[in-house]
Specification:
2 domains, 17% strand, 5-stranded antiparallel sheet, 41% helix, elongated, alpha+beta, 4-stranded antiparallel sheet, 13 helices, 366 residues
């Protein structure tokens, strides 16, 4: 009976020709798919959570502003039951929205269609109140998918499996995927099957006319000369954090697979002993962009790196002469000396952006 009332409610509301009535119906049916797409694209918890509220506000605004929705519910028998069912449907969509917001779906976008299929099947089987055994299997499938997403995708989930558990490596030795060196666990190496498409992105440095501001977008492949500094001149370097939707613009990659390190370095990471002394700046973490000042004689005056996304580092030309400000991606020098390694830096089109503000140290006025 209730299903017939819902069907009749939808039919009448759609055929009234009311724009907002149709938007209301479409949002109820399609909005979980929109949320899944946003979460897969890396929308993040905040954006996905806010978008999950759209069906709720659509219902509230529709009832408050457009009388067509109210009228259809009043005309039909069981209008109160219809409202309860609509509230239940929106409640389920809010739960789905909360799930999509909490799960890192972007870690394995290929599994998202399967996840949507499992959730849709679970809802329909639950409404039918039949096929109980199938419902339990769907709950197990949803639990397994949830674990995979939390682990960071199928590849990361495979790494968590113990040795000898049947994990396959597509022709690669398990040792190349996860092994010990000096007591440290080394993660999967980049293999041919994981190579991402190449996308070329140039580096540019631009001074803002009339302002002491310089903007920079770098692919990290070269030592980039940014500007010259006067004696005792300071410069503040700020990382421009573009957020999760533009992740490739927040860091530089270092191999064909697009692997990268967070702007401030990876927390808890330790550089392998055989590579530590080959870093351009061994005192700084692997994979960060180091800004450094050298004078005309090649002497290092100052250096530093931005400690976290959106952070700032201040450098000062403490010499008595002009000096130049450079940036360098802090990976092994071998990478930059060998063209086959060097071409991998920024291979996937990833870049890192900074804004710099010059200011004169009071001592320079003396």
């Amino acid at each position: 009976m209730v299903h017939e009332q819902l069907k009749r409610f939808t039919y009448i509301l759609w055929n009234t020709g009311n724009f907002w009535g149709r938007i209301f119906i479409i949002s109820l049916i399609c909005w979980p798919l929109v949320l899944a797409a946003v979460a897969t694209a890396g929308g993040g918890t905040t954006i996905t959570s806010l978008l999950a509220l759209v069906p709720f506000f659509t219902l509230v605004l529709g009832i408050a502003i457009y009388p067509a929705i109210d009228a259809v519910m009043l005309v039909l028998d069981g209008g109160r039951n219809i409202l309860k069912w609509i509230a239940a449907i929106i409640g389920v969509e809010l739960v789905i929205g909360a799930y999509f917001s909490a799960m890192p779906l972007s870690s394995d976008g290929g599994l998202v269609p399967l996840l949507v299929l499992v959730i849709a099947a679970l809802i329909l089987v639950s409404l039918s109140q039949k096929l109980t055994k199938i419902k339990y299997l769907l709950w197990i499938a949803l639990l397994v998918l949830t674990i995979i997403f939390i682990a960071g995708g199928r590849e990361k989930a495979k790494e968590l499996l113990p040795e000898g558990s049947g994990r396959q490596d597509s022709g690669q030795s398990p040792v190349s995927q996860r092994y010990m060196e000096n007591g440290l666990v080394i993660k999967r190496e980049c293999t041919a099957e994981n190579i991402v498409p190449k996308k070329e992105t140039p580096t540019y440095v631009k001074a803002i006319p009339g302002l002491p501001v310089i903007t920079m977008v770098a692919n990290c492949r070269e030592d980039d000369m940014i500007t010259r500094l006067e004696p005792w001149e300071e410069i503040d370097v700020r990382h421009r954090d573009f957020g999760p939707l533009r992740g490739k613009e927040n860091r530089c990659s270092y191999n064909y697979c697009g692997d990268s390190i967070p702007v401030g370095g990876e927390v808890g990471a330790v550089t392998r002993a055989r590579f530590a002394n080959d870093l351009s700046f061994p005192q700084f973490p692997f994979g960060v962009v180091v800004f450094y000042i050298i004078d005309d004689e090649g002497k290092l005056v100052d250096s530093g790196y931005v400690p976290h996304p959106g952070g700032i580092v201040r450098l000062t030309n403490t010499s008595s002469k002009q000096a130049a400000l450079f940036s360098r991606y802090n990976i092994m020098k071998t990478y930059f000396e060998d063209k086959d390694y060097k071409i991998q830096v920024g291979w996937d089109g990833s870049t890192v952006a900074y804004e710099m503000i010059r200011n004169t140290h009071p001592s320079s006025a003396q």
